[in-house]
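This part of the workshop introduces the protein records we will be handling. Each record describes a single protein and holds just a pair of labelled lines. Instead of coordinates, the fold is spelled out as a row of discrete tokens. To make this concrete, we reproduce a full record directly below:
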Amino acid sequence: MEISNSEFILLDKNIIPGETKIINLNIAKLHTMTELNVPIIVSRSIYEGPTVLLSAGLHGDELTGIEIVRQLIRQGINYPACGTIICIPLINVFGFVNQDRDFPDGRDLNRVFPGSANGSLASRFAYSIMQDIIPQVDYVIDFHSGGRSRFNVPQIRIEPNNEELATLAHAFSAPFLLYSENINGSFREACDQSGVKHLLFEGGKALDMDSSVVEAGVQGTIRFLDNLNMLGSEFSSEIPEQPMVRITHSSWIRAQYSGLFHNFVSNGTYVKEGEEIGKITDPYGLVEESVLAPNNGYIICQNQAPIVFQGDAVYHISTKIEND
């Protein structure tokens, strides 16, 4: 490997080869005049290599991703064999403090990228990320969860028809790969437009930490770093027992009635068309309505709320997988 002699400057701080440094990104002041900082942990190898950003907490109530990045730091996986690893375990500190998805201005941070220097609070913060951090980055893994009652199986999401991203997703090897178009205003779209390769990890649900999802995120990151020759020699990557399922098309099954929701299948299960996968009942023992699988496919997200309303999304099911 080539010894690194280059400068690496982030937010006006120079991180020398072999150094780990915590840099605080000042995003705003609270109405109490207390400054609010986002800690960024930067670790450089003495050897040249790519720069990877591991980020979580873009939505302040998505705790599983925060725990994944925390474990990567705690275990020392963020010390690269070559190149640089930037960890931001918690981007939306505002939302985290309030146990809420959004910024205090009511905006979803993941819908205002690339942001504006003179826009809303969320927009200004998105702008700072894109101007001050992303230009230094080659790869991003951004960790997310489902909504407060919607539990996602561990999955990587990438845009379709991008072979380079597909190769990176294969290296990560989450249980599922979901091809989905970039959403306007999302961090993923902004990274793509900046030429930065972005993997979106989804797993678990908001305001919850699931150990199996955390482990999937940690192990996937280990495999990803190993693929880039950035994994420290004290760690080893393991090939998953089951090959990754690549989903090209999917749809939501919605509740046809309001009532108590009874789920009959586990997340990640392959179900067959017409199979009873759940039931919606009234509280009085008079009505029971089955929820049937509309097609053969994998359940990749389930609504875990005990009560649903007509039109609520209750299951996310694959409708076509690669090589079907």
Observations:
- The two ends are 42 Å apart (CA to CA).
- The first helix runs from residue 63 to 74.
- DSSP finds six helices and 18 strands in the chain.
- The mean pLDDT is 95.
